[in-house]
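Lab channel / #folding
Pinned by the channel admin:
"Please post every new chain as: sequence first, then the structure tokens as a reply. Keep commentary short and put observations after the output so the thread stays searchable."

First post following the new format, from NK:
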Amino acid sequence: MRIKKFQARNFTEALASVKKELGEDAIIISSEDRKGARSYVEITAAVDYDIEPHGNSNYSPAPPASNSDIAELKNEIRSLRENIEIMRNSGCELTLPAEGRKMFYFLRERSIKDEYALSLVERARAIEDLEALISDDISSARLFNAAYSGIWNLSSRYNNRIIMLIGPTGVGKTTTVAKLASRAIKDGKKVALIGVDTFKIGAIEQIRIYAKMMGLPLDIISDSQELKKSIKKYNDRDVLLIDTTGQNPKDDEYIRSLKDIYRTGLPIETQLLLSASSDCDFLMETYKHYGTLPVDYIAFTKTDEAVRLGSIYNLCRKYKKPVAYITTGQKVPGNIEFIDNQKLTNLILRTGSA
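Reply from TO:
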């Protein structure tokens, strides 16, 4: 574990220095706003490094440590971690002014990451300013919402809007495809469904049921060439919705199979679905893997199951992607909202499910 102090003119610059030197996994131990003739802020941060000597070109073998030495080192690390956690929980990590502390803990309670909370506190004059600041940070979300007011078509050499949903297992992709299809039908659009089963595991029964219920044509394809044929066949349809089977995004073969689809040059709009009820660190780790694909929008499912929705702000702030919509249950049709950034901000700032 490495601990270091950083000084800068403001919290934003100090946090940037922390990220640059210690990386994304660094935690804030303390933060102080020092006033005077030359005001500055000081942040103490720590990072817990994994020891990987074989991946280090500068590594040279050292004499093996004894069992007692290893045990002593582990105890020291454990003690250090416990002390850091005590410091964090005791509230001594901040010596901000009273109003700043109030805002910081208000944001932390809503699961907004410390670094983003500090940045918001620095820009806000009072707690009432937080809503507008958060709304500005996710303002790009409204760009997508207008597209769902009945404007489903896009101008391209294809006469339709091609939307592919990707995301980890259990996030609700197939149900969301059905919700979008229902909405498009309500808007008077002709719809076709395509199921991508690149691993041929047969995990497409649910999309077959939805297609039959809604009276929609459905193709099940296993590679990019079959996808091109399906899109050409359904060129008279206004909206093509592509459902993908969920796999572990850490599986390189799975990500490669999706990349093959984009190599076709088809004008595919990609929506990454993430469960709002999942841990924020898990969501960010998931995005890292899917982020190698051309993601256009993020959509959050299961907001009705989430206790806090600060993770939505965290991901919008970090990855600069607009939120397409949220889902609030399993009901089809229904339980999908193409909300604007103001309502999304209201959800982020409240506690309890959407």
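NK: The domain at 141-349 is CATH 3.40.50.300 (Rossmann fold).
TO: also worth noting, The first strand starts at residue 2 and ends at 8.
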